[in-house]
Amino acid sequence: MPSSFMEKGPGRHQMEFSPAQAARPILQQACQMGAEPRADIELASLAFADVPRNLKGACLQTTSPPVMDERDDAAVEESARRIEAIVQGKLVPMRAHYVQERQRVESRIAEYAKVKAFLEVVAEHALADLDTKVDLGCQFFVNAHVPDTTFVCLDIGFGFHAQMTGAEAVPFIDDKCRLLRDTAARLSAKADGIQAQIDAVRREMERYAIVRQVEEANRSGRLI
Prior knowledge:
This protein is of the alpha+beta class. It folds into two domains: 3-94 and 190-219, no CATH class; 101-183, Helix Hairpins, CATH 1.10.287.370. The protein contains three helices and six strands; from the N terminus they run βαβαββββα. InterPro entries: Prefoldin (IPR009053), Prefoldin_subunit_alpha (IPR004127). It holds the Pfam family Prefoldin. Keywords: Mitochondrion.
């Protein structure tokens, strides 16, 4: 065990910091937050602020013999389990939802890009009609003939479609793709923010585990 984990002095005893008291208010805050499945959950209250910021402060000096409560271990373990349940039950699914929504938006951007490329080809070659293939799903295509390329129907959102000329459709697609890219960026930021919160909670739980290892070493006499 590194020497920085202990302090020596005549007539003094080493007492390991017990995180049980800090874990209880943290758990209460976590449970209150976990009861509301909001997209903007903040885990600042789960940052274990009551735990010393370095392990040097984990060992406190006292002039009386250390009093260890065996219930502390059970309390901390129960707190850790419940906090992990909040992470797995709320934050991980929430992040997965944002990732899935971002992928859906990116898929729409790709579809609009295909339509724009098609319209540019039609305009470049002045095609009055054309033969094409239509994807019916599951990579099953059928031949199709377009007798008039003057108009195209575009999905403008909320299940509505509008008939536009090629000259009208291209700028609309540009504006739509720009908005969709902004939406995808916001979804990415939310997913990344939740992942950062998850990582922060788990880092602090690892600190708890290290503190408990020091406590166990002190209890068994290995911390001299």
